[in-house]
Every structure is written in structure tokens, then in C-alpha cells.
Description:
By secondary structure, the protein is mostly helical. It is built from 2 helices and 2 strands, in the order ααββ. It has a two-stranded antiparallel ribbon.
Amino acid sequence: MITGDLKNKIDRVRDAFWSGDISNPLEVIEQIAYLLFSRRPDELQTRAEWKAHITGGALNCDIADICKIVPTDSKGETK
């Protein structure tokens, strides 16, 4: 059985969906899955930006949002 802090968090999420007029449990699961899968590309972008900052490289993203770190020289221009 779920108790304590975890139960309170689950109840807050359920209340948020309920107040947003989503009461069907299948719709709630669908929305949570959508939010999780849509968050992943943003996390990958943030991680790539952080790596580029740490290594001193430039971030180069193509149309498909596939990001690569490109080495830069001392002036910040790509090699």
C-alpha cells in the first residue's frame, strides 16, 4: 500500500488532472506518457548544451535536432 509523501504526490497529480477535466484513468495515463516522452528531447538538448559549454565546443544541431559538439578554436570559431 502507498502511504505518506508518495501518496500525497500522487493525489496532487490526480487532482491536477481532475481539475483539468480529465477524469478517465486511461486519459490520465496517456497524458502522463505524453509528458514523459516529450520531456526527453529537451533533456538531451540541455545535456548537449552543458557538454558543449564544459568542453568549450560549439553546439551544432541539424533539422532532426540531433546535436553534436563541434571543436572550436581560441576565438570561438568552429574548426
